[in-house]
TrEMBL record:
Pathway: Phenylpropanoid metabolism; trans-4-coumarate biosynthesis; trans-4-coumarate from trans-cinnamate: step 1/1. GO terms for molecular function: heme binding; iron ion binding; trans-cinnamate 4-monooxygenase activity. Its cofactor is heme. GO terms for cellular component: membrane. This is trans-cinnamate 4-monooxygenase. It catalyses: (E)-cinnamate + reduced [NADPH--hemoprotein reductase] + O2 = (E)-4-coumarate + oxidized [NADPH--hemoprotein reductase] + H2O + H(+). It is a single-pass membrane protein. Its EC number is 1.14.14.91. The chain crosses the membrane at residues 12-35. It is found in: Membrane.
């Protein structure tokens, strides 16, 4: 009997015509629309292009969601609009007020991050600080990270090292004769400058030369942090425990591990977060700033004049001097406005249904901040 039933399946499918299949698909689509209209609560969603059932706006916008395409859509639909990418809702905000809402005023509601397979690989499934959903882990990670990274005390404690690193980079460049004639590519050297700034903060370590084998294998970072920085550091502090003033970020994280608040994996992924968040962003900003000064000689001249007047000719700049150099400060801010390293910032997510600008934002929507459209004009404004 069972055998007879199995044999009858293929013949049953063979008799279904293409029209019947198409009709069935259409019926499912219409049914989905009907169900969504009758049973789903009426939400006041942000405006956006008409979404097709199942596909949403995928066929219209594709997966090329770069900030220029999104700015064009913002011109049509306004400073908040909704794209449906298949089943996922993507809310794009493009005004300073709404970006502030997502990042700050309603920061807790929109404080989670979307996750996907790629993020899971790079964060050990959310063991890091950045790509986590709002909750105990989210709060704990931010609390632990504030002391070693995000206070003014950290700036004061580390400024001497930053000043030293800048001076060493300057001396290195000066020692290359081409620097005064044909010019040199400073990319690799400025990368080492940034790595040294951050690795001093994190591990109390620096690279002597840019052909240091450890510097070269920075791509294999996670293994490297563990083997060469974490284990070595643990040995060092066992011999001589640091006092509070001597503690680097890793010491603070190891304290949190000792208290049972985080695991060794958490530490490795936090270090990875900081590498990505701190080094490349700052490095690109430095390179853009230098490129703008090379291409705008009148601005370069004014920066030099200000430094010579305020600090004295040839006197190296220190961190507290920055507040006495308003023109230099403005050039830095203009560079960051014009060359934002992450133009859509990092997507946020709301765990629960929320309100933004009077619209309903369905739970687990991705929120992108398209800031490029309000960072106009696209040139230095002095
Ligand atoms: C010019 C330099 C920098 C730029 C342009 C920059 C930009 C950004 C942006 C756009 C975000 C995402 C904001 C969001 O949408 O949630 C972010 C997050 C972050 N940045 Fe930076 N950043 C810079 C330097 C740094 C430095 C030096 C550090 C560390 C010392 C750092 C650590 C972080 C961390 C940990 C996050 C994640 C915050 C969170 O998830 O709560 N950044 N940064």
């Amino acid at each position: 009997m069972e055998c007879c039933m199995l044999r009858s399946f293929p013949s049953f499918f063979a008799t279904i015509s293409l029209e019947t299949v198409l009709f069935a698909i259409l019926a499912v689509i219409l049914l989905e629309i009907a169900i969504s209209h009758v049973f789903k609560p009426k939400l006041r969603l942000p405006p956006g292009p008409l979404a097709l059932p199942i596909f949403g706006n995928w066929l219209q916008v594709g997966d090329d969601l770069n900030h220029e395409n999104l700015s064009q859509l913002a011109k049509k639909f306004g400073e908040i609009f909704l794209l449906r990418m298949g089943q996922r809702n993507l809310v794009i905000v493009s005004s300073p007020e709404l970006a502030k809402g997502v990042l700050h005023t309603q920061g807790v509601e929109f404080g989670s991050r979307t996750r996907n397979v790629v993020f899971d690989i790079f964060t050990g499934k959310g063991q890091d600080m950045v790509f986590t959903v709002y909750g105990d882990h989210w709060r704990k990670m931010r609390r632990i990270m504030t002391v070693p990274f995000f206070t003014n005390k950290v700036v004061q404690q580390n400024r001497v090292y930053w000043e030293q690193e800048i001076d060493l980079a300057r001396q290195d460049l000066k020692s290359r004769p081409a620097a005064a004639t044909t010019g040199v590519v400073i990319c690799q050297r400025s990368q080492m400058l940034m790595y040294n700034n951050m690795y001093r903060m994190m591990f109390n370590r620096r690279f002597e030369r840019d052909d240091d084998p450890l510097f070269k294998v920075k791509e294999e970072r996670l293994n490297l942090f563990n083997k060469y920085f974490m284990e070595e550091h643990k040995k060092l502090i066992k011999q001589k425990p640091p006092c509070n003033e001597e503690k680097c970020a890793l010491d603070h994280m190891l304290d949190a591990q000792k208290n049972g608040e985080i695991t060794e994996e958490n530490i490795l992924y936090i270090v990875e977060n900081i590498n990505v968040a701190a080094i490349e962003t700052t490095l690109w900003t430095i390179e853009w700033g230098l490129a703008e000064l090379v291409n705008n000689l009148d601005i370069q001249k004014k920066v030099r004049e200000e430094m010579n007047t305020v600090l004295g000719k040839g006197v190296p700049i220190t961190e507290p001097d920055v507040s006495r150099l308003p023109y230099l400060h403005a050039v830095l801010k203009e560079t960051m406005r014009l060359h934002m390293p992450i133009p859509l910032l990092v997507p946020h997510m709301n765990l629960l249904q929320s309100k933004l600008a009077g619209y309903d934002i369905p739970a687990e929507s991705s929120l992108l901040k398209s800031i490029q459209s309000f960072l106009q004009p696209a040139h230095f404004i002095f």
